[in-house]
Amino acid sequence: MRRISLTSSPVHLLLLLLLLLIALEIMVGAHSLCFNFTIKSLSRPGQPWCEAQVFLNKNLFLQYNSDNNMVKPLGLLGKKVNATSTWGELTQMLGEVGRDLRMLLLDIKPQIKTSGPSTLQVEMFCQREAEQCTGASWQFAINGEKSLLFDAMNMTWTVINHEASKIKETWKKDRGLEKYFRKLSKGDCDHWLREFLGHWEAMPEPTGRRSTW
């Protein structure tokens, strides 16, 4: 029986190349995890003062609110994560970070030019590529206006809205706060990203809601 060599079959070579490219993309492609928090300085009875959405590769799969202190799974990925032992740890982390962010909002409220309740929208972001953390940052929006960006990789601040300059100086002087942001985004966020990627790579192409930040 005649043996067929791969080198004599362009179709086989093309299929092999496609499989190698897919495997390479899975191993070294960039993946991201994003936690979006919305914090209110004042909320009505029965309404949460903290809400959070969690996105893996810009796809929404978890929601949290402070009213019931529970995380709601969304889609197939959310259900898979819900079945793991990390679910309780994630719920605790979201609650603690929400409370810490609300304390920050209450501390800076005197510097915010508004007479009514204030809101703080926060995006905690981390990215992995080639099996290492390649990005970690925090973005802050005050009353809907994007105001500050903190790069946790090199510990630098960027003022987006000049009205937040004093807030930036206050936070920049607090080395403990900067280390806290770095630990959460470069440490904890990266840890969760690695945990969730194992479930993500085994799933079909997602079609859920995507992050707009």
What does this structure look like?
- This protein is α+β, with helices and mostly antiparallel strands and 213 residues long.
- It has one domain: MHC class I-like antigen recognition-like (Murine Class I Major Histocompatibility Complex, H2-DB, Chain A, domain 1), CATH 3.30.500.
- One of its GO terms (cellular component) is external side of plasma membrane.
- It comes from Pongo abelii.
Structure at a glance:
This protein is of the alpha+beta class and 213 residues long. It has helices at residues 10-28, 75-82, 87-108, 165-173, 175-200, and strands at residues 31-40, 50-56, 59-65, 70-73, 119-129, 132-142, 145-151, 156-159.
Q: Looking at this structure, what is the CATH superfamily?
A: MHC class I-like antigen recognition-like
Per CATH, the architecture is 2-Layer Sandwich
- Kindly report the average pLDDT value: 84
Q: Segments where pLDDT lies below 50 for 5+ residues?
A: 1-8, 21-27
Could you give the distance between the termini?
Answer: 60 Å
Q: For the CA atoms, what is the radius of gyration?
A: 21 Å
Could you tell me the strand content as a percent range?
A: 25-35%
Name the helix and strand elements from N-terminus to C-terminus, one letter apiece: HEEEEHHEEEEHH
Largest sheet: spatial strand order: 4-3-2-1-5-6-7-8
Number of strands: 8
| Main sheet specs | 8 strands, antiparallel
CATH class category name: Alpha Beta
Task: Tell me the overall shape.
Answer: globular
Estimated helix fraction: 25-40%
Structural class designation = alpha+beta
Using the coordinates shown, work out and report the CATH topology.
Answer: Murine Class I Major Histocompatibility Complex, H2-DB, Chain A, domain 1
Question: How many domains would you count in the coordinates?
Answer: 1
Per DSSP, the total helix count is 5
